[in-house]
Amino acid sequence: MSNNKENKRQKVNNKNKNQDKKTKQKPKKKMKMWKKILLIILLILLIAGGVFAYRVYRNGGGLSGMLATVVGHDENTRKSLGELQVLLMGVSTDQEGVALTDTIIVASYNPNTQKAVLLSIPRDSFTGTNTKRAVASDKINAIYNLTRDPMETLEAVNELTGLDLQYYAIVQTEALIELVDAIGPIEYYVPTDMNYDDTSQDLHIHFEEGLQEIDGPKAEELLRFRKNNDGTSFPSEYGDNDIGRMRNQREFITAVVEQTVKLENITKLGSILDIASRNLITNLNFDVLKDYLPYAVEFSTENLQTASLPGSVPDLSQTNNVSIFVVDEEETALLIKELFYPEELTEEGTTDGNTTNTAGNTTNTISNTSTSNSSIKLEVLNGTNNSKVLQEVVNKLKEEGYNVSRTGTTTSTSKTVIANKKDVSTTAMNDIKEILGTGTISDSSAGGSSSKVDITIIIGKDYQ
Description:
Blueprint: H1 2-58, H2 62-70, H3 77-80, E1 84-91, E2 103-110, E3 115-120, H4 143-147, H5 150-161, E4 167-172, H6 173-183, E5 186-190, E6 194-198, E7 203-207, E8 210-214, H7 216-224, H8 241-260, H9 269-279, E9 280-282, H10 286-296, E10 304-308, E11 311-312, E12 326-327, H11 329-340, H12 342-348, E13 355-359, E14 362-366, E15 377-382, H13 387-399, E16 403-409, E17 417-420, H14 426-436, E18 440-443, E19 455-459
Parallel strand pairs: 1-4, 3-10, 15-16, 15-19, 17-18
Antiparallel strand pairs: 1-2, 2-3, 4-9, 5-8, 6-7, 11-12, 13-14, 17-19
Helix pairs in contact: 1-2, 2-10, 6-7, 6-9, 11-12
C-alpha cells in the first residue's frame, strides 16, 4: 500500500518537473526567435547599406555621389545632362507699375566639365533698327517693362549674342533678400565707398570699401548701386558706372554661389528651392533643376568665367539724345565662342590668327587679340601689406614672358583681381590667373577703355 502511494507521489513529482521544464523552455524558444529576427534585420540593413554604398561609389563617391544616389540617379545620369543655360533678369519691385530689368545675366553650368559662365548684358543695349532714331524703349531693359513677357527679352538676348537660350528666371527683390538671408550673411569685399540717396524710391546706399557681411536688404542696395551723390562711381580700374555695376553684380553672385555650395549649406537646399519656387518667375521646371543639384556641390568658383558684352556708347548727338549701348557684333561673336563654344575655336586652329594649345584633355584657345605674352602690357598693383609680394608677382609674370610695364601700390584688398582693360583673350586671362594661383577675372573693356595697359592686376591678401 505504501509502495502504491510512493509511486503516485513520484508520478506527481515527475509531472510537475516536466511542466516546469516546459515552462522554462518556452522563453528560450522566444529568445531564439527574436535573435533570428534581429539577425535577419541586421542582414537586410547590411545588404541595403552595401548596395547604397556601392551606388554612391558608382555615382562618383563623396557628397555628390551620395546626393545623386538619394535622388535616384545612376552613373549615366550625369553624362546625359547637357549644359544648363538660363537668362537671369533682376527686377526691383519698389516702384509700382515699373518692372525694368536692370540686371540681365546669362548664366550657364556644365555638370560634366564643372565649368560655369556669367555673362552680363548691358541694360542699355540697343535693340532697335536705327540708332539715330533711338528711344528709351529700344533699350533691352525696357522690353519686359513694356510687354511683361520674359520670352521677348530672352529672344532679344539670343539675337544679340547668337545663343539659343530656352530658359529664363526673373528674380524679384523679395527673392534676393530671402535667398541671401537663408544662406548668409555673405562675406563680400565691397569694391568702393558707396554713398547714394534717392528719397523718391526710399533708397539709401551706404557702404565703406572693404570686407563686409552682406544680409538680404544690404544685398539689394549693393547690387543697385551705380554712382554716388556727388556723381563719382566705381574706380576706373574697376569699371565706371554701368560697367562697374555689372562687374559688382557678377562678383557678388560669385560670392553667393561660393557660399551656397559649402557643406554647411547643403541642408538648406530645400528652403532655397522653396524660396525660388515662391518668388521666381521662370519656365524652368524645378524637377530639371534638382537633377543638377547633386553635381553643383562639386562646383568651385575657380571654374567660373565672367564677362560683359563688348560694345560702345555713342555720342548723344548721334542717338537722338538717348544714352544707349551698341553691342559690337564681331567682338561679341568671338567672346561667345570663347565662353560657350571653345571647341569651335580649337577646330579653327590657326585660321584668322588663332592658335591652340592642348594639354591632356584640356584645350586652351589663344585669340588673335594677343599672339604672344610679350605683347600684353601688364600693370601690377600691390594691395597687400607685404612689399615683397609685388616683386615676387612681377618676377613670376616676367618668367612667363609677360611685359610688366607698370607697378605700384593701392588700397589694401583681400582678394586678387585681374582686370581685362583691352579685350585680351579669355585664355590669356586664365593663364595669368593660373600663374598667380588665385584671382577674380573681370572685364573692364566693354564700352571702350583709355587705359595704357592691357591688364591691371591688383594683388590681394589671398595671394599665397
